[in-house]
C-alpha cells in the first residue's frame, strides 16, 4: 500500500480484516423470473439485514457490489431511487437493505464484482483478508464474484441463508460447488462470529516475499 495515500484521499478510513459484500441486492427484479426470485430473495434479505447490523456493530465494513443494469451513466443513488418506486418488484428488498451513509459501493458492468471495477483497490486499502459474499444470485453473480475472490486468495465465507436464486435446487448446487471447489465456508449467518474471524485473521502469519520467491524458484 502506498505510504503517501493510506486512506485513498480520505474515502477509505476503515481498516478491516473482514468485509461484508452485498451483491446485486439493489435490484428492481423487473424481468421474467423476478417474482419467482422475490419469493426466495425476500426471506434471504431479512436474514441479511440482521447480518449487516451485526457486521456494522463489530466494525466490519459493508460493501454494496451492484450491477449497473447496462446504464453506463447511472449512479448508485439513482439505482436505489428507481428500486424504491412504488410499483417496482424489488422494492421490498431495497427497503430492507437500503445502504447507510458509511457503507461503500462498487458498480459492476458484468457478473463478477471484480471485473472492470474498483473492488480490488478498495479491498486492498481496507486490508481485507476474508470476504463474506451475500446476495443475488448464488448461481450467477455471487458465483462469478466468488471465483474471482478465490483466485485472489481471499478467505471466502458464503452464508447459505444469505444468498438466493430463482430455483432452490440451483441455489443448493451453487453453494455446494463453492464449498467444494472454492473452499468456501457456507455456515449459516447466525453462526458467523465476527470477533472470531477478525482474531483469526490477525493470527495468520504475514507473507514473506523472500520465502515466496524461493518457493517459486524451486517449483520451476
Question: Which helices and strands appear, and what pairs or packs with what?
Answer:
Blueprint: E1 18-23, H1 34-57, E2 62-67, H2 76-83, H3 91-96, E3 104-108, H4 119-126, E4 130-136, H5 141-151, E5 155-157, E6 163-164, H6 168-180, H7 194-203, H8 209-219
In a nutshell, what does this entry contain?
The protein is of the alpha/beta class. Helix content is 41%, strand content 13%.
Please provide the count of β strands. 6
Main sheet characteristics: 6 strands, parallel
Count of DSSP helices? 8
Detail the poorly predicted runs: none
CATH class label: Alpha Beta
Output the CATH homologous superfamily. Isochorismatase-like
Which term fits the overall shape? globular
Strand content: 5-15%
What is the name of the CATH topology? Rossmann fold
As a percent range, the share of helical residues equals 40-55%
CATH architecture tag: 3-Layer(aba) Sandwich
Distance between the termini: 29 Å
Structural class call reads alpha/beta
Describe the structure in your own words.
The structure is a single chain. The protein is of the alpha/beta class and 220 residues long. It has one domain (10-219): Isochorismatase-like (Rossmann fold, 3-Layer(aba) Sandwich), CATH 3.40.50. Helix content is 41%, strand content 13%. It is built from eight helices and six strands; from the N terminus they run E-H-E-H-H-E-H-E-H-E-E-H-H-H. It has helices at residues 34-57, 76-83, 91-96, 119-126, 141-151, 168-180, 194-203, 209-219; strands at 18-23, 62-67, 104-108, 130-136, 155-157, 163-164. Strands 1, 2, 3, 4, 5 and 6 form a six-stranded parallel sheet that branches. It starts with 17 loop residues before the first strand and ends with a helix. The mean pLDDT is 88.
